[in-house]
Amino acid sequence: MQIPPTPPDFRTALNALLKKGPEHFGHFMSRGIKPEIDGSYLHWDQLRRHPPPDGLTHEEWWAGVSFARSVLKIELPLIDNTGRKFHFARTDGLLLALHQIDRDMGGRLEVADPQLANKDVRDRYIIRSLMEEAITSSQLEGASTTRRVAKDMLLQGRPPRTKDERMIFNNFRAMELLRGKVREPLSAAFLLELHEVITEGTLEEPGDAGRLRRPDEPITVLDISNGQVLHSPPDANELPARIDALCAFANENAGHAFIHPVVRAIVLHFMLAYDHPFVDGNGRTARALFYWSMIRQGYWIAEFLSISRIIQRAPAQYGRAFLYTETDGSDVTYFLLHQLEVIRRATQDLFEYLDRKSKELQEVEPLLRSGENINHRQRALLAHALRHPGAQYAIEPYRREHGVVYQTARQDLLDLEKAGYLRKRQVGRAFYFQAVPDLARLLMGNGRQD
Question: Looking at domain 373-443, which of 3.30.470.20, 1.20.140.160, 3.40.50.300, 1.10.10.10 is its CATH number?
Answer without folding.
Answer: 1.10.10.10
